[in-house]
Structure formats: C-alpha cells, structure tokens
Amino acid sequence: MYLRELDAATREGRTTISSSTVARAFSITDAQVRRDLACLGQTGRPGVGYQSAELASRIRKALSLDRTWRLAIVGAGKIGTALMGYPRFAGGGFRVVVAFDDNEKLRGTTVAGVAVKPLTDLAEVIHSEQVELAVLAVPAEVAQDVAVRLVEAGVRGILNFAPTPLKVDVPVEVIDLSRSLEQLAFHVSSV
User: Fold this and answer.
1) What's the whole-model pTM score?
2) For position 136, what pLDDT does the model report?
3) Domain 69-178, CATH among 3.40.50.720, 3.40.50.300, 3.40.710.10, 3.40.920.10
4) For the chain, percent helix, then strand, then coil, each to nearest 5?
C-alpha cells in the first residue's frame, strides 16, 4: 500500500512525501508509518519527509519487485482473460508470458498479446518460458490437480482464484471474492 502511494506521489511530480501524508491515505498514525518504514533503514528526514522515488525503490527491493516476475495464467475464461489484459501487472513487476486452457475454442488464440496454450503443454511451456508464478482461474474441481502440475513444472508461487484451498509445497495467495463480499456486507450491516 505504501508503494502505491509513493508511486502516485512520483507520478504527480512530488519528490518528497511526509509520514503524515502517507498516514492520512491509510487512516493510520504517522508514527506507525515511520515504524514500518524504519525496517528499510533511515530514509526520512524530519521536516522534509522521504524521497518518494528512493523510498519506492527500497520497498520494491524489499518486496522482490525490483525485477520482472514471469507469470502464467491457467484458465482463460472471464477472470483469466481480464487478468491477461490487466495493465498494473507490467508496472508492478509482473509479465504474463503465457496462458493455458482446455477449451478448444480458446487454445491457439491470443488475448491481450498472450498466447493461450493447451493444458497438455503446461510442463514444457512453464519450463521453456521460465515461468515462476501462476494465477489459477479454473473451476474448484480441477484446481488441486492443476496446482500440483504447476508445482511439478517448476512454478514457485500461485495466486488462487479457485474457490477451494490448495495443498501444495509453494506459497499460495487466495483471492476469494465471495468471502470479501460477505465481509463487506457484514461491515455495512453492523454500522
């Protein structure tokens, strides 16, 4: 979240940003911002603030976003297709290099400049394209099998849109839109 705020400041031409400005953006205290950013070393100056571009660079390095991660999307349906054209991936250090789908109508097509390959080619293409991360946008009933195949092919992390937990030996981040909407409904109802 800090990185996004710093990138916005840089785009707006602000070369410095104060901890209080960052704090207001996230409804936290400036002391919390200073504590969080202290993990990166002494980068701010009292009365001046932080150099926006320099601090963004330090955060990128700490998050391993100072390089480009090669990404595959498995499932070229509505979610997968939307993600293939998502413009913030490229700016965030992620490059979608390939997509996979079992739908014969999708295989061999190109979506947002990304070739859609058959799942039968998964291991070979993951290796040849040096894919490190994968987005899983497949139905729940096949998600575990596909996740295992991805890991066996060399994928080091998975972003899971499938509504099911995965049991694999790599980090998995879960995107559960239904759960998020349920939490939002609860918060709105309890206000």
Assistant:
1) 0.83
2) 97
3) 3.40.50.720
4) 45, 20, 35
